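REQUEST ID: PR-0412
SUBMITTED BY: lab tech R.K.
PRIORITY: routine
TASK: structure prediction, single protein chain
INPUT:
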Amino acid sequence: MGFSPLSLSQFLSSILFLFHFHTTISSSNYSSSSHFCAPDQSLSLLQFKESFSINSSASGRCQHPKTESWREGTDCCSWDGVTCELETGQVTALDLACSMLYGTLHSNSTLFSLHHLQKLDLSDNHFNSSHISSRFGQFSNLTHLNLNYSVFAGQVPSEITQLSKLVSLDLSGDLNGYLSLEPISFDKLVRNLTQLRELDLSRVNMSLVVPNSLMNLSSSLSSLKLRSCGLQGEFPSSMRKFKHLQQLDLRYNHFAGSIPDDFEQLTELVSLALSGNENDYLSLEPISFDKLVQNLTQLRELYLMWVDMSLVVPNSLMNLSSSLSSLTLYSCGLQGKFPSSVRKFKHLQKLVLRYSNLTGSIPDDLGHLTELVSIDLSFNGYLSAEPSSFDKIIQNLTKLRGLSLGYVNMRLVTPNSLANLSSSLSVLALWGCGLKGNFPGNIFLLPNLEVLDLTYNDELTGSFPSSNVSNVLWLLGLTHTRISVSLENDFFINLKLLEVLVLRECNIIRSNLTLIGHLTKLTRLDLAGNNLNGQIPSSLGNLMQLDSLYLDNNKFSGRIPDFLGNLTVLENISLSNNQLLGPIPSQISTRSLRLFDLSKNNLHGPIPSSIFKQENLEALALASNNKLTGGISSSICKLKFLRLLDLSNNSLSGFIPQCLGNFSNSLSILNLGMNNLRGTIFSPFSKGNSLGYLNLNDNELEGKIPLSIINCTMLEILDLGNNKIEDTFPYFLEMLPELHVLVLKSNKLQGFVNGPIANNSFSKLRIFDISSNNLSGPLPTAYFNSLEAMMAYNQNSFYMMARNYSNYAYSIEVTWKGFEIKFRKIQSTLRILDLSNNNFIGEVSKVIGKLKALQQLNLSHNSLTGHIQSSLGMLTNLESLDLSSNFLTGRIPVQLADLTFLGVLNLSHNQLEGPIPSGKQFNTFNTSSFEGNLGLCGFPMPKECNSDEAPPLQPPNFHDGDVSAFFGDGFGWKAVAIGYGCGFVFGVTMGYVVFRTRKPAWFLKVVEDQWNLKARRTKKNARRNGARRN
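STATUS: complete
OUTPUT:
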């Protein structure tokens, strides 16, 4: 079939007409859509733009100022971040993330005129702590709302819960967490937002929301993120309803209890992050963990923090999915050998097993995990790195950007092997690894290095370069290394991005601190212990972001500069142990101080009242300035977070504020010793307090020791010595279960010290000093039986440190080997029993021999009688023994010569007789140790022993509780019976005489003469000893 020419012409004309018509229509449509934005929408957007400024610091994660493209007269639908509905021209989506917007978002903003919005993203801007307006509830079509990292504050309005079409809601805040969500609003949210698939409320304060209410959320959720929300209480008992969950992040809350078994049913989980808290771990049983790792086959990320996994075998980690890309088990208590092989995790990019108890060696097949970007095995004290394995790991992991092996044993690893680390490395943290030798210089020059922490490698040498250092380095830690560093011009110019500089007790070979002001981004500066001198540089005043300043243990002189008071974000200031003069600056602008330590300087004047306005203060140390004067203001009791208060060794006067006993349950250390404070000891002490150290030594305190001190159940050190306390012996102190040191010396205590009134009395007491009082009666032998800590010697010596403030070492002042000594640190092995300068009478009990850990025993200047007990020979750790100025009789036991540590012996001014034991330690003592005993003979006394004088008898062995051991072999039951019979006859006869004559003058005279003679001698002795002490 063919076409005629006419028909073909008509056909072509028709085609051309149709093509022209289609082109015209398309052109018309295109023109219409390219200018489609409704005028009111455009105007609203422009007015919204004008209400904010553009500030580069307003967006942190990314920066894209989209509103700069918004210009009047152009189509708003073509503007950055704006999406329109084609048919109506209404704005349906607004994406202004990272737009650097700065200002307040008011409730009358034209933003709320965009009623057709379905998606709104204002994330990563700075809305200056604006409240989230209730008008957000008018966006009835909204399916996606993102306000994260935009500095909103206040309550999340309940109107948000009216957005019933929401599929995704993100209100997560920044680190400061300004937003809060009330339980009522949360309940409405979970009840009304039934279409939610993604919910992120991280860092929104939800501390009043009950964790179990999470179970009311939609079962269709695929992503739930509630990080750092302050949630507290029992972890929800079941999670099985959320079968579509792919992401679950509940870390950094305060959950307790167990992780439920039914987690295994969340088989779609790709990312799981859970954490308990430092004081109350979540628990994960081995069976639950095994089911979890077997069933969650799609898991790519596992993050568990403060979860008790101590019963989980480390090798069971090998059952995790081989597709795992990130594994973090932080402070989970894993214990046992590190898995021998980890090569199955070929996709692993991040491995964190920090703060565990893993042992053994890091396996060399870790080097097969070539995708690894970050490794952190820090704080596994028994984990080690073998040189050959470590070399392989370093050479193979070419993508490694972060390596943290703090406190992993690397003593055998040559530092030079680190030279093979990836050139893309950004984090290297090897503190406390025992590295020895020269650190490779090329590491300092790695171009992407951001963090370098080599602290506490005391034998690590090298030289930190002055040029070509990474210009992105923001943390440098060389504390306790021998790596030399010059703090001069090049250092400060090349490292302008430094935020943390920690060079405590390191090898600074040259310094010009006047240039330190160039490091304007510094937040932490630690130059302590470097013998730096001169005045504190004024350029520190430029460091406006500084929150921690440690210049202690140097030789800085001059006054404390006033500009320190202008650093408004300072939290920690330590200038202790320098040579600073003058008054403490009166103006401190910051209100965020947590640590203020000016101790051990030469400051004078009163304590400024501005210090007592620092409501967040946790530690105030102004000790050992000698010339600080004035009183202690009662305003100090406003510091509710105070954990450490040390104002000792000054010239403070006046009365101690009575509120100190109960103003804060956080207070752990209270030292007001060596001042001129008056009044009584503050009371009452509140129940539940944390006081571990109380030192009021060397003041002028009077009155009694308050009974409420028994509320201090954590008290370890109590020093009330050198005051004017008038009281009987405070038996109630026995009820303090943790008491290690008790010093009550040089007061006016009186009466008997009978013995314990409770079980385990003073069982942990290591130092017991009640010397120089007016105590009387027999020695407190019953206490000797309960001093368990003085019976067992522990060779593991350490300094006694505060429990709740680990940098503070306990100190006391005692008489040690005849001298008044202040122990600035107390060794745990120190054992002292000092009952001297009292009025104790009677014999020294054999029980004293039980206290085998004693290093010093002082019973001098009392009225003790009887023999020196041979059981003293059992005190094999004794270094000082003083029994002088008593009425002791008999011979010196030869066992004392076997006390090999005995360096000080004083038996003077007694009534001892016979030969002085010879040999060993006794050959080192001079006459002063034995003078005033006219019956003693032999070296070193001038009186020689007669040849017919019998040598000292070998006293019997001491056996605890075995009285028969104190009878000789020839002194058995017959001799006892004879003595008993004679005594009975004599007693009956004397009784008859007294009965018949009623007043036997001759008998009374004998007794009275003996008593008066003893009293005269006691007074004479006291005068003599007092003169000696003076």
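NOTES: The first strand starts at residue 53 and ends at 54.
REVIEWED BY: pending
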